[in-house]
Amino acid sequence: MSSSVAGTVSPTRQAMRRFRRDRSARIGLVLVTLLIVIAAAAPLLVRLAGQDATTYHIDLLDPARGNAPRGPVGGASGTHWFGVEPLTGRDLFAITVLGLRTSLFIAVVVTLITTVVGTLAGISAAYFGGWYDAVLSRLLDFLFGFPQLVFMIALGIVVPARFPRWLLLILVLSLFGWAGLARLIRNQARSLVAREFVEAARSVGSSGWMVITRELLPNLIGPVLVVATLAIPGYIGAEAALSFLGVGVPPPTPSLGRSISDSIAWVYTGADPWFLLFPGTMLFFAVLGFTLLGDGVRDAFDVRLRRTS
Amino acid sequence: MAEPVLEVHDLKVTFTTEGGLVPAVDGIDFAVAPGETLAIVGESGSGKSVSSAAVMGLLPSNAEVAGEVLLDGRELNGLPADELRKIRGNDIAMVFQDALSALNPYYSVGWQVAEAYRLHHDVSKKAALRRAVEMLDKVGIPDAARRADSFPHEFSGGMRQRVVIAMALVNDPRVLIADEPTTALDVTVQAQIMRLLDDVQEEFGTALILISHDLGVVAEVADDVLVMYAGRAAERGTVRDLFFRAAHPYSLGLLGAMPRVDVPPKPRLTTIPGSPPTPGSITTGCPFQPRCAYTHLVGERCVTERPELTPRPGEGDHEAACHLGRRPSDV
Amino acid sequence: MPGLVWFVTRRLAAALIVMLALSLAVYLIFYAIPADPAHLACGKPCTPDRLEQARHFMQLDQSTLQQYLNFLKGIVAGRTFGDGAAAVQCNAPCFGYSFPLARPVTTLIFDRLPVTASIALGAAVLWLVLGVSLGVIAALNRGRLADRLAIGVALLGVSTPSFLLGLLAILVFGFWLNMVPVSGYVPLTESPVDWAWHLITPWIVLAILSAASYIRLTRSQMLEELNLDYITTARAKGAGEARVVLTHGLRGVLVPVITLFGLDLGALLGGAILTEKVFSMQGLGDLLITAVGQLDVAVVVGVTLFSAFLIILANLVVDIVHGVLDPRVSHG
User: Fold this and answer.
1) What's the confidence (pLDDT) of residue A10?
2) What letter would DSSP give residue A213?
3) φ, ψ at C108 (rounded to 5°)
C-alpha cells in the first residue's frame, strides 16, 4: 500500500481496500446483489414463470389431507417451481419472490429515512449542544429501552382502517429506528467538534451549514455507512416479525413473515413443511446476506472491531 | 558487595513476532544484595523493563528467556508455573509505574492488598484484611482502616502509588523491583515515595531494583547502577563510579543531558544525537556506535567487534563495554 | 455505603419521572386523540348497550385532564367505574377495565403474565450464561477451533429471525424427531417438570439468537481486558491463571455485558411475544393482539403501559447492578 507524498490514503479508500480482501464480505456482496436483482425483477420473474400470487388453484390441493398440496415438495412442478400454498393453491414461487420484494422495499425505505433523520439529529445535537443536546439525549435513552414491538402492535388500534398499512409500518419502524444512528453520530460528531479543525473553519467565517457539510460529514461517512448497512437486516427481520404476528403487511400483498405465520399449522402436523421452508429460506438468506455485507463494511472501516485475528 | 540475594547471569530475552525474532535483551548480568539498591538505567527500548519482567516470569508466551536467574542460589528460569507463582509476589515483588492502571478499578484497595497476602498465606479474609490495613498504615495512608474500603479512583496519584507499594510489600519480599515508580508523579510526591522505599529497605532489609530513566532519582537512592543500551549492558558500577567516573560515552551523554547543581553551569544541555536502534537491527559491533562522539578515536573496531564489559583499571567492580579503554571525559 | 444509596435514589427518582411522562403520552395517544374512545373500548361486535356503558364509565363528559388524573389514581389507588348498582370496583393497580371481557385489565394481565415471564426470564438466564461463557472460552482459545465455532454460531444466531428458528426447531425436534412437546404451556404450579419441559425448546431458540451478540461482545471485551495493566499486576502478585481470568478479568467484561443486557430488555419482551405465538402459548402477546383486533382499547393501553413500566423497572435494576459492579459509576 503506497501513500502519496502529499498525504496518506483517505480512510474511505483504505476501507474499500480492506473490504475487497474480506472473503465473507464478498460473499455478502454477491448475495445482496442477487437478492436485489430478484426483488427488483420480481414481477418480471413471476410473469416468466407464468404465474401470479393471487390466482387460486384448488385443483392442485388434496382435500383428503386437509387441502395440502398434491405431490411431493409441496406440489413443486415445472409450472409451479416452489409448489403451491395449502388451502388456496396459490403459486409459492410468486409469493416468495414478491414477498422478498416487499421485505426489501420496506427495509430499504425505513433505513433511508432513519439514516437521514438520525444523522441530522446526531450532528445537530453535537454541533449545537446545550439544552437541545440534553433533551435529545434523554429522548434517545427513552426510545432505546422502550418495548418497541408492544407499542407497534398497540398503535394498530388507534389508526383508522383506511390508512395504508404499509405506510404505517414504515412510519412506525422509522419512529423507533432513528434513535440508534442518532446516538452513534452524536457521539462521533462530538469528538470531531471538539477538535481544532472545526474551530478553525468557524474562525475563517464558515457558516454552520458549511462546517457541517464540509468538515463533519466526510468524517462521519464511515460510521453512517456501517450502521445503515447493518440496519437493513434488522428491518427485514422487524417487518417479518410484525407480519408474522399479523400486524404487519396485510393480505393480499405477499409477505414472507405472514407466509411463515400461515405455515405454522402445516409444520405442526408435518403435512406441508415446504410452505415454511421456501419463504423461510428466502428470509434467512436476505438477513444473512445483508449481515455479512454489513459486517464486512464495519470491519473494513474499523480495524479495532475485527472479528478474528 | 555482601552475599547477593538475586543474581542474574547472561540474561537473554528473544521475542518471536510476525516480523521475525526480536532480541530485546542480549546478555546482561546483575546482582543485588539485601538492603542495597541497584538502579537499572536506560531509555525506552533499552530492555530494562523486559529484564525485570523476565526475572518475575511475567513475559508473554512468545518470549524466550535464556540465562540464569538465581534467587538465593535457586534457579528461577525454567521453573514450572506453579512453583514460580509461589515466588511471585512473595519473595520477589513488583511496583508498577502507573498506579491507576495497575490497580483493579472494581475492587477496594484493602481487598487488593489483602489478596496479595492471601495468595501466599493460608489465613481468613478478615485476618488478611487486618494485615492489609496494617500495611496501608505503614506506607503512610491516613485513616487506613476506613480508606481500605475505598476504590483506586478515589485516591490521589501519590496515595495510589503508596497502595501499590503496600501491595508489593505485604509479604515481606526479599527483592522489590520498582519499575519507574515515580515517573507519573510530581516532584514533591516523588521525594516522599522515594523516602518511603528507603525507610522500608532499612526496616526490612529488602533488596531494591530501581528501574528508571531519571538520573536524579538514581543519584538519591542507588548503591549500584547498571546502564543498559539496546538490550546490552553499557556500564556497571557503584553510583559514585557512574556520576564521577563515567566510563561509557552513553553514560556520559546521559549525565550531560541532565541539569546538575554540583558542577558549574554549562551554556546548554548536551543531547545525544540520533535515537536508539530498533531491537535487533544492530548485529555486529557496538550498538551505540552510530551516535557515539568518540568512535573516530577507535576506528573500525567499533563497527566490527562487539565490546564486552571490561573492568576499569584500579576501580574494582566498575566495568564498561567500550573499546575506548579510557574515560571519555579524559579525552 | 452512602454513595451507593444516593446512586440508587437518583435512579429511582428518574425512573418514576419517566413512568409518569410515559403514562401521559400513552393516555393522550389512545384516549385523548382518537375521535371516539368509547367506540374503541366497546369491542366487536359493539352493542349499543355496551357502548352506552362504556361512555358512562369512561366519564367522557369530564375534562381530559380530569380523566387522566382518574386514570393515574386508578393505577396507584384503584378506582370505581360507574355508580350505583352497576358500579364496578377495580383495585390497585388498576390499568383499566375491559368492557367486552367484563374484567379489570390487571386481572387479564396477571393471568397471562406467567407465560411471557417464564419464556423471557428462562431465555435471558440461559443466554447470559451461554453467551458469556462461550465468549470467555472463545477469547481464551483465540484463533483455535473453539473460537471459530463460537463465532460461527454467533453469525448464525444473528442472521436467523427467532420465529423462523423456532418453527424449524419444532419441525426437526418436535415433529420429525419427536423429542420435545411442540406447544402448550404448563403452569409452574401444576408441574415444574412439565413446565420446564415445554419451555426447553423456546428457551433454547431464544437463547441461541441472543447469545450470539453476547458471545461476540464478551469475546472482544475479554481480549481487550486481558491486555490491561492490572491483569499483569494480578499475575505479579502470584495469582494463578484461573484467578486472573475469572476474578480480575471477568469483572471488567461484565460491565459492558450488563449494559448491553439493559438495552436488550425491550427486545427480550418482543422476542418472548413472538415465541409465544410460534409455540402456541397464550401470553401477553396473544392478549394484546386479540385486543387490537377486537377493539378493546382498555386492554391495549393496559398491556402497553404495563410492559413499559416493567421495562423501566428492569432497566432500573440493571442500572443498579451496573453501579454495584463498577464502583467508578456509583462512588466518587
Assistant:
1) 65
2) I
3) -60, -40
For residue C280, with 0-12 CB atoms within 10 Å meaning exposed, 13-18 middle and 19 or more buried, which class applies? Answer: middle
CB contact at 8 A, B39 and B239: yes
Task: Report the length, in residues, of chain A.
Answer: 309
pTM value is 0.76
* Complex-level ipTM beyond the 0.95 threshold: no
Residues 306-325 of C with CB under 8 A from A: 307-308, 310-312, 315
Smallest CA–CA distance, residue B89 to chain C, in Å, is 4
Q: Which amino acid is at C232?
A: T
Q: How distant is the Cα of A202 from the closest Cα of chain C, in angstroms? A: 36
Dist CA B286 CA B231 (whole Å): 12
Q: Cell match 408474522: residue? A: A244
SS (H, E, C) chain C: CHHHHHHHHHHHHHHHHHHHHHHHHHHHHHHHCCCCHHHHHHCCCCCHHHHHHHHHHCCCCCCHHHHHHHHHHHHHHCEEECCHHHCEEECCCCCCEECCCCEEHHHHHHHHHHHHHHHHHHHHHHHHHHHHHHHHHHHHCCCCHHHHHHHHHHHHHHHCCHHHHHHHHHHHHHHHCCCCCCCCCCCCCCCHHHHHHHHHHHHHHHHHHHHHHHHHHHHHHHHHHCCCHHHHHHHHCCCCHHHHHHHHHHHHHHHHHHHHHHHHHHHHHHHHHHHHHHCCCCCHHHHHHHHHHCCCHHHHHHHHHHHHHHHHHHHHHHHHHHHHHCHHHHCC
Region C155-169 average pLDDT? 81
Q: How far apart are CA C179 and CA C50, in angstroms?
A: 48
Strands B232-238 and B224-229 turn out to be antiparallel
Tell me chain A's radius of gyration from C-alpha atoms.
Answer: 23
- The verdict on a CB contact (< 8 Å) between C236 and B119 is no
3-class DSSP state for residue B243? helix
Instruction: List, in sequence order, the alpha helices (H) in A41-129.
Output: 42-49, 92-128
Beta bridge partners of B16: B21
CA distances from A248 to A236, B15, B215 (A): 12, 60, 74
Percent helix / strand / coil, chain B, rounded to 5: 35, 20, 40
- Hey, how many other C-beta atoms are within 10 angstroms of the C-beta on C242? 8
**CATH class, range B1-91+173-331:** alpha beta
Contact between chains at C248 and B104 (C-beta distance less than 8 A) = yes
Task: Please give the sequence-ordered ranges of beta strands (E in DSSP) within chain B, or none if there are none.
Answer: 6-17, 20-32, 37-41, 63-71, 74-75, 92-95, 175-179, 207-212, 224-229, 232-238, 310-311, 319-320
Burial degree of B296 (CB within 10 A; 0-12, 13-18, 19+):
exposed
Residue B241's nearest CA partner among B177, B323, B327 is B327
**CA B229/CA A232 separation, integer angstroms:** 56
Q: C252 vs B106: CB contact, 8 Å cut-off?
A: yes
**Residue found by looking up cell 522500608 in the block:** B200
C residues 82-141 lying closer than 8 A (beta carbon) to A: none
Whose CA is closest to B214, among B178, B174, B267? B178
Q: Is there a contact between B87 and C236 (Cβ–Cβ < 8 Å)?
A: no
Cross-strand partners of B237: B225
Do the chains contact at A284 and C311, CB–CB below 8 Å? no
What is the distance, to the nearest Å, from the Cα of residue B42 to the centroid of all Cα atoms in its chain?
9
The domain limits of chain C are 38-94, 106-330
Cis peptide preceding A147, ω within 30 of 0? no
pLDDT beneath 50, residues of chain A: 1-7, 304-309
Question: Domain residue spans in chain B?
Answer: 1-91+173-331, 102-172
Architecture of domain C106-330: Orthogonal Bundle (1.10)
The pLDDT tens digits of the residues spanning A207-252 come to 666 666 666 777 777 778 888 888 899 899 999 999 998 888 888 8
Please name the residue that has the C-alpha cell 546482582.
B31
Asked if the Cβ–Cβ distance from C155 to A153 is below 8 Å, we say no
Which residue in C has a C-alpha nearest to residue B86's C-alpha?
Answer: C238
